Amino acid sequence: MFLLGSLKSQTKIAPWRVVIRTLKVSVVGAGGGIGQPLSLLIRRSPGIDELALHDLSEMKGIAADLSHVSQEGKVIGFTGEVELEPALSGADVVVVAAGMPRLPGMLRDQLMAANGSVAVKVATAVSNACPGALLAFITNPINMIVPTAAEVLKAHGAYDPRRLFGITTLDVVRSKKFIGDAMKISPDKVNIPVIGGHAGITILPLISQCQPEFKGGREDVQKMTHRIQEAGTEVVNAKAGKGSATLSMAFAGAHFVDSLLRGIGGQEGIIECAFVASELTEAPFIASLLELGKYGIKRYLPLPPMSVNEKEAFEKLLPVLKQNANEGIDFARKSL
Ligand code: LMR
After folding, report:
1. Residues of 69-102 as b/e, b for ≥16 C-beta within 10 angstroms?
2. N or C: which end of the chain has fewer CB within 10 A?
3. What is the pLDDT at residue 198?
4. Which of 156, 198, 226, 255 is catalytic?
5. Would residue 156 show up in a list of annotated catalytic residues for this protein?
6. Which of 103, 144, 244 most suits a substitution to test ligand 1, by most atoms within 8 Å of the C-beta?
7. How far apart are the first and last CA of the chain?
């Protein structure tokens, strides 16, 4: 049964919706390097009646600041663990940017010790405060955090695989930008699925499926794939100890939240790549192409065709995803 987020009256009119109910979006980790620009960009999505900003540090100032942007709806700040459930109460979409970033030399997996508890706490709070919400994580390591959250939601009887997402949009955003630049066309004109996961070799841009066609030899494809897979590390190294991607991540996260909202609003044909529970492969969680709808995932698109090299890379990433899922599930079980 779907427990659709707060079942509110159908009143609002927005350009891409005819008549819809009111909407609440909650951002967890809204005071951080990703959370602040993410919250600002989410303000641009039409039809949000309440934007709830939560963080462990004082949120009054950031909420007051953002509430002056000339957009419809109110912005409310919530501070500390005690205000997590009030921040989420009745939310339709919860997006989580809380957690520690990588430092140079670290792998995303190494963040699990610090960030696993974020997944546990937020999934528990979602189960209590807004069990019908669409829940989307930016927090790394995505490949483990999403399975952890799934397990916690299951334990609280609030799990629906169609409503839980790991946001991998930044891999698509980067692919569009790098390929667009290489082909001397606008990134907006580039369409490419990125499947697998969100760490190292699990990030698999299907360059063979790029539209327009990526014109390059085998070596160019390999270089481009490697650049996309290591783009997060490129930023971590460039920031030299001051964190990881925040602005491009906020751009990608806001795009994904907007797509979730468009789906909720009944817009047809919203296709995104995201990391979700899935029966498409032997890995229980994987990033693939999805159609979004009123209740989250409306349809799992089949895996796209792959070149011989992509198939080989795909076979290599599946055991990594399975291992990551097991680690995430174990973490949840130990925490419950
Ligand atoms: C990214 O891809 O930029 C993020 O996952 C952050 C990171 O640690 O690389």
Report:
1. eeeebebbbbbeeebbbebbbbbbbbbbbbbbbb
2. N
3. 98
4. 198
5. no
6. 244
7. 24
ipTM: 0.99
Neighbours of 43 (CB within 10 A): 19
Ligand 1 centre distance from Cα of residue 330 (Å) = 23
| Chain segment 154-205, per-residue pLDDT in tens | 999 999 999 999 999 999 999 999 999 999 999 999 999 999 999 999 999 9
* DSSP-assigned letters across all residues of 87-123: HHTT-SEEEE--SPPP-TT--GGGGHHHHHHHHHHHH
What the block records as the tokens of 304 is: 């796209």
Reduced 3-state DSSP string for 25-62: EEEECCCCCCHHHHHHHHCCCCCEEEEEEEECCCCHHH
pTM: 0.94
3-state secondary structure of 125: helix
Residues within 6 Å of ligand 1 by CB = 102, 108, 140, 170, 198, 232, 235-236, 244-245, 249
